[in-house]
């Protein structure tokens, strides 16, 4: 089975695997992983608010939360994943933070959880020096958006995660898509930094967890992964010689880890 709506793309049949994309990306970032799994699994990728085929919500950025994003995920899965059926959950970056929060909310329905550097910045203690960098990055993006400089916000954000000058190398069509998506960033940063759950709360998650991180990634996302592997009771952390965007830039390194993990968990059913 293969189908695509404006904001949902699903392929294959079998046990469901739900895929959550990174910020400034879309459901299509998971295409190659879906191809890898679809012979035995129903793979479902969807667009968050402000991405792909899902418009921005009519919500002030100062009240938008991860729970709002989770409500969207639940609504998009309705009619594709049967109510109450357990599913494997995969998330990258922003999608990883949403996935972590979703698993806390509905652990009984999560068969396994795979996270590539979830940017759950609310988990960084105030003693972490890197927190100042995240606040500075968030503030810069919000300033660009307040000035209606979406191109500046997109370039700053892309270069932060991928290296200086990366945005300028993209084709004009891709730059335009990223600029259109930049308006979501103030909402995303607010949701990531103001989520009230703590590391102590996430200790309660007892599903199998596969954490993946890149040694060349910014310190903030690496620190979140390091904190999580110390507190999640059923978790293993895999380090790769890649950056934060490895699910897109190095899928040949990332996808086999995800596939092996999901198949191992499924075999224990």
Annotation keywords:
Rossmann fold, 269 residues, 46% helix, single chain, 16% strand, globular, alpha/beta, eight-stranded mixed sheet
How would you sum up this structure, described in words?
By secondary structure, the protein is an alpha/beta fold. It has one domain (2-125, 197-267): Alpha/Beta hydrolase fold, catalytic domain (Rossmann fold), CATH 3.40.50. It is 46% helix and 16% strand. It has twelve helices and eight strands. The chain has helices at residues 31-37, 66-77, 94-105, 130-146, 150-162, 166-169, 172-181, 185-194, 199-202, 219-231, 246-249, 251-267, and strands at residues 2-4, 8-11, 15-20, 41-46, 87-92, 110-116, 209-214, 235-240. It has an eight-stranded mixed β-sheet with strand order 1-2-4-3-5-6-7-8, sandwiched between helices. α10 (219-231) links the parallel β7 and β8. α1 (31-37) runs parallel beside α12 (251-267), α2 crosses α3 (94-105) and α5 packs across α7. The two termini are 23 Å apart. The model has no long low-confidence stretch (mean pLDDT 95).
């Amino acid at each position: 089975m293969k189908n695509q709506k404006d904001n949902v793309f699903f392929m294959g049949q079998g046990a469901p695997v739900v895929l959550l994309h990174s910020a400034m990306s879309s459901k299509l970032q998971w295409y190659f992983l879906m191809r890898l799994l679809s012979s035995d699994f129903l793979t479902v990728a969807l667009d968050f608010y402000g991405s792909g085929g899902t418009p921005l919500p009519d919500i002030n950025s100062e009240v938008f939360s991860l729970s709002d994003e989770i409500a969207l995920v639940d609504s998009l899965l309705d009619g594709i994943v049967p109510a109450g059926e357990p599913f494997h959950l995969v998330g990258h970056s922003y999608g990883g933070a949403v996935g972590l929060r979703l698993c806390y909310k509905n652990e009984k329905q999560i068969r396994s959880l795979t996270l590539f550097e979830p940017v759950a910045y609310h988990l960084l203690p105030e003693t972490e020096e890197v927190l100042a960098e995240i606040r500075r990055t968030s503030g810069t993006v919000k300033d660009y958006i307040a000035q209606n400089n979406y191109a500046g916000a997109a370039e700053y954000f892309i270069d932060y995660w991928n290296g200086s000058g990366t945005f300028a190398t993209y084709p004009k069509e891709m730059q335009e898509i990223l600029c259109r998506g930049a308006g979501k960033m103030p909402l995303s940063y607010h949701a990531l930094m103001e989520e009230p759950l703590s590391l102590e709360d996430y200790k309660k998650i007892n599903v199998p967890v596969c954490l993946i991180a890149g040694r060349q990634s910014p310190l903030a996302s690496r620190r979140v992964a390091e904190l999580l592997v110390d507190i999640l009771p059923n978790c293993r952390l895999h380090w790769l010689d890649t950056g934060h965007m490895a699910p897109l830039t190095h899928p040949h390194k990332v996808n086999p880890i995800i596939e092996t993990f999901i198949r191992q968990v499924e075999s224990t059913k």
